[in-house]
Design goal:
The complex is a heterodimer of chains A (138) and B (67). By secondary structure, chain A is an all-alpha fold. Chain A has helices spanning 12-38, 42-62, 70-103, 111-137. Chain A has two domains: 12-62; 70-137, no CATH class. Classes of the chains: A mainly alpha (138), B mainly alpha (67). Chains A and B meet through helix 3 of A and helix 2, helix 3 and helix 4 of B.
């Protein structure tokens, strides 16, 4: 999201305006999705939601000023690391722990548990591939 | 990292927003650097040194914890 950084001179007021437009576009899309769901126009809601997301991406990509700087990137990187750490603990402890509890008859795990664990496994796999990619690139 | 950017900025009469615009970052980033809560990248450090017409080591004074 914050890869669109430049060291070019930027005016803060312009940056704020474009950020508002970008997030506003996504916000309108999310509102349209909820309204679409509430009024049984699901397909239209999803279409407008995608349009809002696309609008946000286009503003971020083509805005004349850099919307994010290196501190934003650093903050996102640290937040991502923390998120991965939390998921790693949940996955490493939760998956075998849940299976042991089920095998010993203490609990009956719902299907959602296995879905969540497979999702965490997929996230971990994507993270691992990304690490390898950047390790070989740098 | 300890630095004297706010003092240099005061000397030149620039606001944080002016300096931020000059080096291409947000005002919040300049504020975070001045409050020693964010260490700039090498590229930004060079940009700041270039802006104040000095060397990086004149701007920043790393403590033992920073090394």
């Amino acid at each position: 999201m914050s890869e669109h950084t430049t060291s070019a001179t930027t005016r803060p007021s312009t940056r704020k305006r474009y950020k508002r437009i970008a997030y506003g576009s996504l916000g309108v899309g999310i509102a349209a999705l909820w309204i679409g769901i509430a009024t049984d126009r699901f397909a239209l809601g999803v279409l407008l939601y995608w349009a809002g997301g696309l609008g946000m991406g286009l503003v971020q990509r083509f805005s004349p000023v850099a919307l994010y700087d290196e501190r934003d990137t650093t903050i996102e990187r640290k937040a991502s690391q923390n998120t991965m750490n939390v998921f790693a603990y949940v996955f490493v402890l939760g998956a075998p722990g849940g299976l042991v509890l089920e095998e010993s008859g203490v609990v009956t795990l719902p299907g959602e548990f296995y879905g969540a664990m497979w999702t965490l496994f997929a996230v971990s796999a994507v993270f691992g591939v990304s690490v390898l990619y950047y390790k070989y690139r740098t | 990292m300890r630095n004297d950017i706010s003092e240099r900025r005061a000397e030149t009469g620039e606001s944080q927003a002016d300096l931020a615009a000059a080096v291409g970052v947000t005002r919040q980033t300049i504020n975070a650097i001045e409050r020693e809560r964010y260490d700039p990248s090498l590229e930004l450090a060079f940009g700041l040194a270039d802006h104040f017409d000095c060397r990086i080591e004149d701007l920043f004074d790393p403590t033992e914890e920073d090394r």
